[in-house]
Amino acid sequence: MSDLLRQLASALQASSLHDATIYLLTNIPGFPPIVQTIHIAAIAAVMGSIVVVSLRVLGLAFPRQQVGEMVRRLMPWTWWALPVLLISGLVFVLARPRRYFVNPVFGIKFALLVPAIACALLLQRLATRESAPPVMIRAIAGLSLLLWLGVAMAGRWIAYTDYLFPPE
Amino acid sequence: MTLAPFWERVAMSPFSTHIGETWWFPLLESLHVIAATFLVGSILMVDLRLLGAAARSYAVTVLSRDVIPWTWTAFVVALVTGTGMFVSRADHYVVNRAFQIKLALLILAGINMLVLHRVGWRDIARWDTNNPTPTAARTAGAASLVIWLGVLLTGRWIGHLL
């Protein structure tokens, strides 16, 4: 763990947000699975929006629907899902910052998330533009598909690699 | 429970213990979660159309025909991976309250879908492109939405009770 991450983890650990999330997670019955379910439902929204748009651009799904119309109709779901994912994920990160910051899979998840969001923005811009070369749009869609699946996979694997990278 | 010895035998089989003791379990579980998000994501599309909250410019039949192959594929993947996870600790899962409620909700979801297709779909030609859809269709959409979110919740809850 780099010094910067260590300091950030310590700062979070000492903050009142840490105390607040620990309080909520331990005192509200069912709070952990409820927040995790909100997180998973928001992933379902990501799968049903940006991932479906990527599949459509690649010619793998919904051939009868128009790409431009799909982008306008579905992409807002991605942009609404992201803050929900951020807040529901943050509950767990704030409660145990060291657990996440020492785990390299957590780092991998965000290393995949940043380009995934960039691909989503690019697809939204270019998918309806006549001037954009189709090969490029398809390449972005393929990358987008792999990145979003990778983000979801990495998220799940943080827990499995937990014992390999114990906090402290 | 009289079936307890049977579920213990299932959990003790070489196949089950192999899943439980190797990287198979995390692999199955991560595929299960991905499949679940595809499954629920695709079902939500149709539910929200039935509720008149999304894809209003699409006929209900057009949208559901586009979505159904994805729903069924995701369902089969979730079923296969879920069964693999189940046998690894079958004796524990059968008495797990969250698991029991999840199965009940899945049956409810199936019944809701059957009723919608058998009864609600009968006069679909009359309301296929309508907004709002008839009360029966809206009710089925709302019920499906709630049931599937319940499946996600109880599914996620299973691990907290093991």
Main attributes?
heterodimer, A: 168 residues, mainly alpha, 7 helices, 80% helix, elongated, B: 162 residues, 0% strand
How would you describe this structure to a colleague?
The complex is a heterodimer of chains A (168) and B (162). The longest helix of chain A has 29 residues, at 67-95. Chain A has one domain (3-164). Helix content of chain A is 80%, strand content 0%. The mean pLDDT of chain A is 92. Chain A is built from seven helices and no strands. The radius of gyration of chain A is 18 Å and the shape is elongated. Chain A is mainly α and 168 residues long. Chain A has helices spanning 3-14, 16-27, 31-57, 67-95, 97-101, 104-126, 134-160. With 162 residues, chain B is mainly α. Chain B has one domain. Chain B has eight helices and no strands. Chain B has helices at 4-12, 14-21, 24-50, 60-88, 90-94, 97-118, 124-127, 135-161. In chain B, helix 3 (24-50) packs antiparallel against helix 4 (60-88) and helix 6 packs antiparallel against helix 8 (135-161). The longest helix of chain B has 29 residues, at 60-88. The radius of gyration of chain B is 18 Å and the shape is elongated. The model of chain B has no long low-confidence stretch (mean pLDDT 93). The interface between A and B is medium-sized, with 28 and 26 residues.
| Shape estimate of chain B | elongated
What is the number of E strands of chain B?
Answer: 0
Question: Structural class, judged by helices and strands of chain B?
Answer: mainly alpha
Q: Runs of chain A with pLDDT <50, length 5+? A: none
Strand content of chain A: under 5%
Helix count of chain A?
Answer: 7
Residue ranges of chain B: pLDDT <50 for 5 or more in a row? none
Task: Report the span from N to C terminus of chain B.
Answer: 18 Å
| DSSP, total strands of chain A | 0
Q: Report the average pLDDT across residues of chain B.
A: 93
Rg of chain A: 18 Å
Q: What's the average pLDDT of chain A?
A: 92
Quaternary state, please? heterodimer
